[in-house]
Amino acid sequence: MIKFSTGMSYLLLGMVNLPTKGLKRFVILPIFFNLLVFIGLFYLFYHYLFPLSNYYINQLPSWLSFLSTIFMIFFILSCFLFFLTTFTIVFNLIAAPFNGILAERAQYLLRNQMIPELTYSEITVRTIKRQIQFIGYFLPRFIGMCFLFFIPFIHPFFPFIWFAFNSWILSMQYQDYAMDNNLVDFKTMRQLMRQNKEESFGFGFLINGISFIPILNIVSMPAGVIGGVLMFCDRHSQKLPPILIKKQ
């Protein structure tokens, strides 16, 4: 539990460092992208999810009608987590080049470490390529989770399963910006996460959790990027060949 709590603390450190001089202009765009995520979620809930949940409940047999409220809660929660994951992943992919630059600046300003010398255009190209690798990892698992949704006896547990899945995926995304900037390949990144799985899960768990908290959810993207940088510098930078980390 100590490592789990330590992982959570990195997101809090990310939030604390949001106003850092030199970072603020790189924080604005991720906040804008995160705002779009929740505007989209609100639109889906209002126009589609509530009518769909009523239709779903009406399909229950009469002898289960007394459970309609419970089923509706689980259905809405499951759908919320599903759309939250989908929107977050999509907008993180769109925001990836900006988040990569934010990660580079955070590493320099907060830990006085410089990434291998790359131009912003090179960082952008590498980040997009990395996100394609991430999609190859994420998509089969996402499809598998979608199949679980249609297994009736799993419904009561599905929100918890999905929350855990989304926590791990978010942790991977936000840790990966720093690792990619420091030329850590995708396979090695996954190995480092497994070696540090309790902290990694705690980090993603809190990112996922604050998605339900107004105002805080808007800053979760830049805070997650900065927190991922701090975790990388504290946990992994010394494990890499010296050529990959240059100190000022």
Concise description?
This protein has helices at about 1-15, 25-60, 70-110, 120-150, 160-180, 185-195, 195-210, 220-235; strands spanning about 115, 245.
Quote the beta fraction: under 5%
Most strands sheet: 2 strands, antiparallel
Q: Can you count the beta strands? A: 2
Number of helices: 8
Taking pLDDT < 50 over at least 5 consecutive residues as the criterion, the unreliable ranges are: 241-248
Helical content (DSSP H or I, runs of 4+): over 70%
Read across the widest sheet, the strand sequence of neighbours is: 1-2
Structural class: mainly alpha
Global shape: elongated
User: How far apart lie the N and C ends?
Assistant: 35 Å
Radius of gyration: 19 Å
Give the SSE string. HHHEHHHHHE
